[in-house]
Amino acid sequence: EExxxxxxGFYNQDLDGKEPAEWLGLRxxxxxxxxxxxxxxxxxxxxxxxxxxxxxxxxxxYGHSVFDGKPAAVVSNSPGNIGGFGAHHHLxxxxxxxxxxxxxxxxxxxxSVGDWFDxxxxxxxxxxxxxxxxxxxxxxxxxxxxxxPAKLWPxxxxxxxxxxxxxSRGAKGEDAGALQGxxxxxxxxxxxxxxx
Length: 196
Description:
- α5 (about 150-170) packs antiparallel against α6.
- The protein has helices at about 20-30, 50-60, 85-95, 125-145, 150-170, 175-195, and strands at about 35-40, 70-75, 110.
- About 50% of the residues lie in helices and about 10% in strands.
- The protein has a 3-stranded parallel beta sheet, sandwiched between helices.
- The relative contact order is 0.10.
- α2 (about 50-60) links the parallel β1 (about 35-40) and β2 (about 70-75).
């Protein structure tokens, strides 16, 4: 769902506890989302004020952020060649603070964005459509990973602890090294499995 952030009033901490209805509506929409895709132009090497304002509204009051833990991805754009690089990375800093696991690859900088789309907003060519489709597929896979780490981390940690316990109970020399290597390999395989 696309969320219109242009009609939301400016964030004012004095209104925490007596928030305007449009703030509550924005927070509810974000909270109900499985993930957030941020698409932004670049203004003065950062995001537009309207996006920063929406982030402030969604992340406040302190300790009640609706962004917390939601998977995210960033798409930046500009009519110039660098595709909003400054805005992209400035936004990533904010998302790290908000505890939003953010898709790292592929990065999506849309330089010369006016050449990508036609006047009705349609994608101009198949190569561009394929590129955007690859990004979308990676983001969908990233969102799907959200639940997997919570399920597999305890298992990987358990394997490591079991190995430490077995080693402490008497495996010595080459046997200890082999056992430790096998258990570490198993734990590593479990962690790699999180990202496949």
